[in-house]
Amino acid sequence: MSADIVITEPRRLYPYQKVAVDTLFERLQQLPPNTNLLFQLPTGGGKTIIFSEIAKRYAEGFNRKVLILTHRIELSRQTSDVLFDLGINNKVINSEVKTLPSQSPYKAFIALVETLNNRLQENEEFLEDIGLVIVDEAHNNSFRKIFHYFENVNILGVTATPLSSNKKLPLYQTYRELIVGQSIAQLIEQGYLCEGVTVGYDVNLSTLRIGTNGEFTVGSHEQLYSQIAMQGKLVQAYEEHAKGKKTLIFNAGILTSRAVFELFKAKGYPVRHLDSTFSDRERVETLEWFRNTKDGILSSVSILTTGFDEPEVEAIILNRATKSLTLYHQMIGRGSRVLPHKKLFTIIDLGNNSRRFNLWQFPIDWQHVFVAPHLYLEQRYKDEWDYEMVNDYELPAEVRERFVNSSAAAFIVRDRYLTALREGRKPQSVLDESRDDHFARITGNASDYDEAIELFQLLKEEMKYRIKQFGKCINATANHSDWQTQTYTSRLRRQLVTFFAEP
To answer: Which of 244, 250, 261 is nearest to 308 (CA)?
Structure first.
């Protein structure tokens, strides 16, 4: 027996996992060589358990070896541990493995894609007798470059989101068909995933820029999310909905993440920062601190979207926007693990992401995503913010009839705000203009003070709407917008008192 083997109690498959294994293995048996299959299952559904069980059945049933491809060392280690639990002797091919002189002891290999690509470029016969290739996180196109080394084999790709990271290389070009597992909603209903409660905050994303990859740029993210107003909104959101909970904060850039760390540290909260520049030792130490800190806050930059599993996470904060459906699900999935004392987790959205993609647990037709990925990669989602900001408040017909003596011209707060910025005026001047507009409309249609106050009341919803628009332009907190509303209405009333008191 190999010294690598660790004897443990085999993991039992949940009913839905067994159905998935049976379905996939039966389909693999039916497919001819060089025919590839794709499997979708939500993050937290146990894809590693499922494809490891398939690897075991394949190695034992066909007496050929299985290659499992990953792109993170953490995923390689997790997969290796699961295979050992199932009694499958395996070898992780990392940067330290230069040669494999004796491959007979192993039934499976787990390889980092870049490392294996280097080995195969040096020696195309680096691995022997591979019959099945399993690709974890199959939406990542980095795997395609080594597929040509494996002929007369089947490839099984697994992913939570069957949407290629490159719209020029859709997954349907690599995989013949897609098999869809249980949905997020089904796994929640059956008690295998936590229910996510989403709290959204209005954020003005108009300054974000889109890069050549179709995603919002890191630079424009850094400029927006490092602003004092956005940092205040982040702290407010945490204190209102996640205080005392083990919390993951996802940022787009390192500067933002470090600023978040300093912000929470200054307020006395237990917080750490983690990014890709950390050494292995620093990374391990940071994650160990997070696991052992009940109310710990970990601010990171994408690095924890895959290959990280901390079931105790109770709150996810998206301190960023994304146009990637895959990244959206990966980030939120980090909080979906269920525990005996944990049936719910909180999702705080500071990037209008739930408007762009719908709520995390909202059903998605993955078969349609698979066959028509361009509709999703092009992101034909529109933020409600965009619609709301380009229109003025529409007065009810019966209210409009009371203002026949004044102009019906639209007052678009965003346009006025942008004009003020171009002219070098203070943003607050926009509310001054709005108040002047309301004053002129009231005084132009009221014969006395009593009628003026009546018209004032009829316009209050429009006032609130404009102030809400203004708050979005400057990324104001709810408390600040409430204060602006009180100030706006009290000043307007004083103007009316003065006007109608004049002889």
So the answer is: 250
CATH 3.40.50.300 fits 15-182, yes or no: yes
Determine contact, residues 466/393, Cβ cutoff 8 Å: yes
In whole angstroms, what is the distance from residue 271 CA to residue 257 CA?
Answer: 11
Compute CA distances 63 → 4, 37, 55, 106, 288, whole Å.
20, 20, 11, 11, 40
User: What amino acid is encoded at 308 in this protein?
Assistant: F
Q: What is the pLDDT of residue 391?
A: 64
pLDDT in tens, 130-145: 999 999 988 887 778 8
Matching fold, domains 15-182 and 188-377: yes
In which region does residue 401 sit, left (phi positive, over 0), alpha (psi from -120 to 50) or beta (all else)? alpha
CB 246 within 8 A of CB 234: no
pLDDT tops 90 at residue 96: no
pTM: 0.72
C-alpha closest to that of 413 among 442, 388, 438, 382: 388
State the distance between the two ends of the chain, measured CA to CA, in whole angstroms.
Answer: 105
**Helix residue spans in 395-459 (DSSP H):** 397-400, 413-422, 429-443, 449-458
Q: What is the CATH number of domain 188-377?
A: 3.40.50.300
Token pair belonging to 192: 């295998």
Among 170, 195, 193, which residue's Cα sits nearest to residue 45?
193
pLDDT in tens, 5-15: 334 445 689 99
Structural tokens at position 154: 């089947």
Q: How far is CA 83 from CA 80, 192, 384, in A?
A: 5, 22, 46
Q: Is the CB of residue 79 less than 8 Å from the CB of residue 48?
A: yes
Distances (CA, A) of 47 to 142, 175, 342: 19, 18, 21
Q: Which amino acid is at 89?
A: N
Tokens found for residue 216? 């919002």
Output the CA–CA distances (angstroms, integers) from residue 382 to 176, 269, 326, 352, in the order listed: 32, 36, 17, 10
List the chain domain ranges.
15-182, 188-377, 390-501
Q: Tell me which of 38-42, 216-220, 282-286, 498-502 is least confident.
A: 498-502
Tally DSSP H helices, then E strands, for the chain.
Answer: 20, 13
Dump pLDDT digits (tens) for 286-319.
Answer: 999 999 999 999 999 876 655 567 889 999 999 9
The mean pLDDT of 103-125, rounded to a whole number, is 87
Q: Strand, coil or helix: what is 452?
A: helix
